[in-house]
Structures are given as structure tokens and as C-alpha cells.
Amino acid sequence: MSAQLEQRVDVELPTEPSAVGRRPVVRWAMLVVGLIVTLALPWFVYPPVAMDIAAWALFAISVDLLLGYTGLLSFGHAAFWGTSAYTTGLIAINSGLPFPVAILGGAVVAMLLAVPIGYLSVRRTGIYFAMVTLAFAQMIYFIANQWRSVTGGENGLQGIPKNLGGLTDLVNSDSFYFYYAALPIILIGVFIAWRTVNSPFGRVLVAIRDNPARARALGYDVERYKIMAFVLSAGLAGLAGGVFAVSHGFASLQELIWTTSGKVVLITVLGGIGTLWGPVLGAALVVSLEDQLASSGFNGTGIITGAIFVVIVLAFRHGIWGTARNGINAWLRKRRQGARSD
Amino acid sequence: MHRNKSLALAASAVAGSLVLAACGSGGPSSGGGKISDDKVVLGLLNDQSGVYKDLSGPNSKVAIQMAVDDYKAKYGDKAVAKNIEIITADHQNKPDIANTKAQEMYDRQKADIILDVPTSSAALAVATQAKAKKKLFIDIGAGTTALTGAQCNKYTFHWAYDTGMLAAGTGGALVADGGKNWSIVYPDYAFGQDMTKSFSAAVEKAGGTVQQKIATPFPNDNFATFITKAGSTNPDVVGIMAAGGDLINFVKQYNQAGMADKARLAVGLMFITDIHSLGVEAFKNTVFTDAWYWNFDDQNRAWADKFKEKTNTRPSFAHAGNYSAAFNYLEAVQAAGTDDADAVVKQLEGKKINDVFLRNGEVRAADHNVTHDVYQVKVKSKDQVKEEWDYEEVLKTVPASEAYAPPSPDCKM
Asked: Is the model's pLDDT at B32 over the cut of 50?
């Protein structure tokens, strides 16, 4: 494991856009299907679980931004998710502001926290970067645990309200409505991630991931780009954490503990890193699997998700989405070649 | 490019219509009949796999089933609740899981009431959900006074015991018995913090002093450093505020460290299942407060015999408490003629109850604390034990008025 981590994260982001990505029609069709599924989700899935899937998807995308596109494996992203969850909760409880404002506040605080942490940790790569981020996350965890007057310690922060001006009663009456009220925040987060990846800034990140020395030689300030990516990623994790906290009406130490950092990395790798769609798929799979297993009274959820993870990593190195995309591309190429030779 | 635009338009049209349709259909449905969904669903939310499994856990389902059977036998064809279903879930003693599970039980599984919920932090989370969903919650397994204090609400009742009652019984008695200097070791969450506060107050009121208050993680396995620290001031009494599996671990390590001869052990909260798993020798002469003891009188014993037939073990007070809470809830449904939460709450408030669990019981309307007579007991020595589970000697019955503090001014319904 450690030997692998020290190596550069090995994803092939195709140098030319893939057939799937290159064809705008396919791309739009995928987007439409994705949007419809997202909007229809709470009809088929218990709405709070649907909200969890959406929040974890954005959280995983934030990790993917670092892991897949910048080549940094953060093992302490729970710090930003959890910090935002607590901050969102405190703002919502104490000020009575609408929840999107509280979530935005949480995300800003998560980004502010990411500046010093990023500054100190991006100088390292691979396993060292993972360990430094983990150490910072543990510090935040213990601060939250001890700072009882603010965070509630082991009891957690309870009774986070879902305020939304005139719609407060509607949103509170059923988690079904809350899903639609909070979904735009998630979608904005996903859009920011998508814009980032498909911008010159995103290209530089990929260049840094693939060959930091060459990027530096070309005149890019590698550290600064990494810090920017780190802060941006923390902001997205913060948005997701805020939505999660408001959805549950509750922020607890569970949001900050290292297993949460582990779970989000697992989701990202499972779905396929460097794909953006992958983390979404991974989140849907892991969250609904956990829900299914928990309600069936089965206690060993970890065994199942762990086993799936091992199989995916061993057999499908690019994750579920990565493998599927490569398969489709290969098939399309073959067909095109076949058509040409006719 | 044209094509893209039209596709985008189509997408937003589809999305928009979906949202509109969603607003029309997905709303909460209000029950038409007297019994919502034609059945009464009792939700048991507790620790099914961890440190509190034995003291309540799966056997509480048996106790609740006994309550359902007794209710059906009592009312027969006249029973308002014809279909009664019991559902269970494991909250793993974590407040976040309890919070999610409670939400699911109320919304998804249509639970009319949630019962038990040990672990105070989890209980407070469920109380918050009960308030939000306007559904009943009767807590049995948790001890925090916050449930009937600052965080009390209309739909939450606290049935069996609280930390104030335990401290009044045990703390004061030990100081009077010569244990002036105390070290308190407590698990660092709502229950432990609350117990420490209550015990410190009781000890100081009786003229003792608390020299140290030592926090430990929860749940925890290794207590060695905390035991050494507790012994460092040569206290007369070491008070341990942990419960269930953690208590068992602590007492084992306490005896191994040879502390038993140096300082007297006071246990804040103990269940008979704890004594059973370690044996009476480990707890020799320990005095504690019990909410109910199976071998106290014939009525208790008869119920305990029935319980033993089904589970092959004797009931803890939490099992009897679950039975009593479930039975009285069904009685309230019967009296109200509906399972509507507000009507049932009205039936329960102020009710005076005498049953197998509650003696001189009263559901206080002011704070929804259920007060009743409790027992100061001593763990028997080995040669006094006549049969299995015969572990406790009742020193005295503490009347409800002495055991429970008056309603807290923090509680605003």
C-alpha cells in the first residue's frame, strides 16, 4: 500500500479527449440523463438517503479534484467536511439565517482552514502528504472533542434548523422537499468542479500531476497551484458537509473522524479517479449499499464494502466509471475502424 | 451548436416538469383512520451489538412483546390497537446513527413510538427527532437529566431512572458511611458528565469532597492509567460512572490493580447483568441504587419467571422498564381510542401508575419524568447467594419524593 502511494497516482487522463467526451451529443445526453436521475432520485430512494448520496458525491468530487487531477491523496478531508458541518450548524442555530447562507459560511470557513493546512502540506507528495493531512485532521477532531461549550463534544451539535425564509415550514415538513431545496447547492458545487477541471487552470493541475518538474520549468508556480487546488477542494468538501449537517439536523464527531476521510477516498477510488462522474457513481453505490445492509439488520457492512473495494482495485484499476468509459471508447473505436475499412 | 441548445432546452423542460410533479405528489399523508396505517408500530432503538447489549439489547424486544401479549389478553376484541408491530434497530451507541435511525423509524417505518435508547447522547438526539416529527419517545435506557431538563419536549418521556436519582441514593449513603474523599472516573459524554455533576452535588451536600474528576473516552477498553490516577490522592471512595461493558472492564482492572483493598468502589449505575458477568466477588459490598429488582417481591418474581421462560435469563431493570413503558403506552392508546401522538400524550400526562415496574409511579406533567420508588441495594457476598441471579440485598426502599428532584426550571414544554 505504502509503496504504491509513494508513486505518483497513476491515472490515464487521455491526452486527446475521449470519444465519449469529444462528442458533444453524447456529452449532453449524459448530462441530461444524470440530471433526470438526480431529480428523480427521492422518488425511488428514501429522501434523506438521496440527500446523503448527493452530499457524499460532492465530497468525493472534491477529493477527486485533488487525487485525480492534481495527484494529491488527502487523507484528512474530513477536517473540511466536518468543520463546515459544525460551522453551518452554529450559524443556523445562532443566527436563524436561511440554510444556504449558513452552508456558504461553513464552506468559507473550511477554505480558510485549508489555507494554512495546504500551505504546510503541499510541499510533500504521496504518502507523506497523506500523513500530514491526516495529522491535521486529527488535530481538528480533538479540538472539536474538547471544545465542548461550542461543539457539544461527544453529544454533537443537535437541532440544526432548516430555515428558508417563507419556505421553512414546507422544507421542515418533509425531507422530500428539503432534497429539492438543497440540491442546487450540490449542483453548483459540481459545476464549479467541472469548470475547474475544464479550464486552463485545470490543465495546469494535470500537468503538475503528470510531471511537476516540467511544469515548474515552464514557469508555473507548482506550490501555489497546489494550494489553490487544495483550498478549492476544501471549499467543495465544505459545501457538501454543510448540506449533510443541515439534512441530518445534526453535526457530530463522526463527521471529523479519520474513517470519514477514509470512506470518501474509498468512494472516489471505487467510482474511478480523474473522472468526476466516477465519484458520483461511487457515492450512490456505497451510500445505498450501507443503507440496504443496515436496514436488513446485517452488521458487517464494512466487510461487504471492503470486499467490493478490493475487487475493484485489483480487477478494475480505473474504478467503475473509468473501466466503463474505457470499454465504451474501445468499442466505439473498433466500430469506427470497422466502418472505415468497409 | 443548434442541436446542443435544443437539447439543453429539452433537458430543462424535463427537469422543470419533474420538480412540478414532485411538489404535487410527494407530500406527507395525514392518517385518515383512528389508528394511523391501521397498525401501531413500536420501535425499539438500542444497542444490539455493543457494550450495552446485555443490559437491554435484543431481550428488550421480548419484554415489549410480553407487553403486547398482555395488552391483547386484557382487552381481547375490544382492543383499539388490533395490529401491533415491533421493529428494532441498532444505534451502536452513536448519536449520529441514533439520529438517522430515529428519523427513519418515524418516517419510513411509520413508528408511532420509539422505546429504550440507552446512551444519553443518542437519547438526546432521538428526543430532538421526536420533537420535530411530533411522535412519541419514551426513554428507558439513558440516564441524563437533560431529557427532562433543558432539552425536554412534549413528546419525550423518561421512564426508569435518571442520574439525579442514582446520586441521591448512592452518593449520600456512602458519605454517611464514612467515605468522605472521592475520586470520580467517568466516560466523557452526556451521561458521564451528568452523573459526575449529580454525584459531586450529592457527595458535597452530605459533607464529603470530590478530589478528582477523571474523564475517559467512551467506549474504552484500557483503564489502567485512569485507575492509577484515581488512586494517587488516596481517596476513600473511587466512584465509577461508566455502565455496561465499560463498567465490567473497569472493575476487572480495578481489582487486578489491587485497588479494591485501598479504596471502596462506588458504582454510579449498575445493571444486574453486570454483576452476573463478573460474579458477586468482584463487586463485594458495593452499594448502589437500583430502579427495580426481579427478586424484590412476588409480583416481580412472577414476571421475571415468565421472562426467563422466553430468554433463559433474568431481567434487568431496563427490560422491566421497557415492558412497563410499552404496556402503559398501549393502555394510553386504548384510553384515547387513537394512536394520535397528542391524544396519547394527554392520556399519559399526570397518570398515576402501579405496575410490576413502577411502584407509586407518576408521569409528571411538568417535565415528563416518570417518578417511582427506587431501591438502595448491596451486592450479596458469595455465601448469601441462594440461586443464580440472586445477587442483590435491598437495604431500603427510597420513596419517589426523595429519590427524584422536583421538575427542573430549565424545562419549558
From this structure: no
Instruction: Kindly give, in sequence order, each residue whose CB lies less than 8 Å from that of residue B364, ignoring residues fewer than 6 positions away.
Output: B148, B350, B370, B371, B407
Second CATH level (architecture) for the domain B164-290+376-395: 3-Layer(aba) Sandwich (3.40)
Check whether A1 has a pLDDT greater than 60: no
Burial of B24 (0-12, 13-18, 19+ CB in 10 A): exposed
Start-to-end C-alpha separation, chain B = 62
* Mean pLDDT, residues B22-45: 65
Is the CB of residue B49 less than 8 Å away from at least one CB of chain A?
Answer: yes
For the record, the C-alpha cell of B371 comes out as 417518578
| Residues constituting chain B | 413
Which chain A residue is nearest to residue B121, measuring alpha carbons? A155
Tell me how close the Cα of A340 comes to any Cα of chain B, in angstroms.
26
Q: What is the mean pLDDT of chain A?
A: 86
CB distance A238 to A106 below 8 Å = yes
Asked if B28 lies within 8 A of A172 by C-beta distance, the reply is no
| Closest Cα in chain A to B125 | A158
Task: List residues of chain A with CB under 8 Å from any CB of chain B.
Answer: 24-25, 28-29, 31-32, 35-36, 39-40, 42-43, 46, 48, 153-156, 158-159, 172-177, 180, 248-250, 252, 254-255, 295, 297, 299
The per-residue pLDDT for A297 is 64
Q: For B26, list phi and psi in degrees, rounded to 5.
A: -85, 0
Q: Is B343 helix (H, G, I), strand (E, B) or coil?
A: helix
Do the chains contact at B125 and A177, CB–CB below 8 Å?
Answer: no
Question: What pLDDT, on a 0 to 100 scale, did the predictor assign at position B294?
Answer: 94
Fold observed for domain B36-161+296-373: Rossmann fold (3.40.50)
Q: In what order do the strands lie in the sheet with B136-139?
A: B84-90, B40-46, B113-116, B136-139, B156-158
Q: What pLDDT, on a 0 to 100 scale, did the predictor assign at position B184? A: 95
Chain A interface disruption, residue of B107, B152, B241, most A CBs within 10 A: B107
Burial A162-181, CB ≥16 within 10 A → b, else e: bbbeeebebbbeebbbbbbb
The domain segmentation of chain B, as residue ranges, is 36-161+296-373, 164-290+376-395
**Total domains, chain A:** 1
Res. B111: pLDDT tops 50: yes
Residue of A nearest to B100 (CA): A248
CATH number for the domain spanning A124: value is: 1.10.3470
The verdict on a CB contact (< 8 Å) between B22 and A48 is no
Average pLDDT estimate for A188-196 = 94
Interface touch B18/A40, C-beta < 8 Å: yes
ipTM of this predicted complex? 0.71
